[in-house]
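User: Predict structure, ligand zinc ion.
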Amino acid sequence: MAPQQDADIPRGSVDAAQPRARRLPGKARPRDDVLREYMEGLRRRRDAIDARWSNTNSFVLYDILAPDESAELYRWRVQLDCGCIKEAMTRGDNTLPHEVPWTDHVYYAQLPVGQVVCHHDDHPESPYRKITDWDTRSEHTLPADPAEPPDWVMSASEKTGNDPADFWAALRHNEPGTTAMWRVTLECGHVTEVSADVDWNPTDGPRRTSAQRLREMRAEMEEDEDEPSPLREHMRRMLDEGWPMPQTETTCFACTSVRRFVAYQRVGWLVPRQTKPRPSKPSRESLTRRLSAAEAEAQRLRDQLAQHDADQEP
Ligand SMILES: [Zn+2]
Ligand SMILES: [Zn+2]
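Assistant: Predicted complex:
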């Protein structure tokens, strides 16, 4: 399957062809293995609850944060547009796997419905996407950088021929610093994180660079004759916007690894359903006994009727 095109922003299942039910090659994993893994995962989540809220009645929290849903889980095999066949579970057997939101593997955010992560090592470069929502903020204090240039500075300097000490002096944070990390939603519907100044707030809007500095940056960019690249296009757009800080777009890793469902196959309940005992077939003896009883009753009624008619005769 061809990797996703940069220009093709995935937006959920609206324009996707409907996945169809079909027998998929291969076999489902043994049910016992899947159930055991589910129970082990549940145990780990409950252990984390015990460790975090050791003074609370954990059983109450289990029901809220880590309920045992094994009896409600229904198994599917699904085929994705990269060709991979995977297993999935939904709550109940009425909802198809492409009708529920799955989570990404990096930020544990919900993906647009119809998408699921299937990471391939040969994924394309992460495309730039506009930030549409600034969701939540946390602060991170970073220690001062070491005095010696780190390895990545040494290898970058080797390539460019710069003096690593000068290069590092320009980049290095001499003091511990606090930065704000924002969890943001992008135009593609995916979630990522970007940093911003601690005192910045989305209601302020991004800060712009002076016209003088913009002219200088534009001139520097024209001077270096790099090939067109997503980074260069991004810098050009940012210059057009007055070099906003924080930047109004960022790279989206999820866009390089999400796939769509193309087919699905039912596997069955994770825990077999209790089937109601079917009424067993009556035996010949039982039928004979019931027929004799019915015949005796019919004979009794016939006798009663005859007696009734005899009593009525003048
Ligand atoms: Zn795949
Ligand atoms: Zn994305």
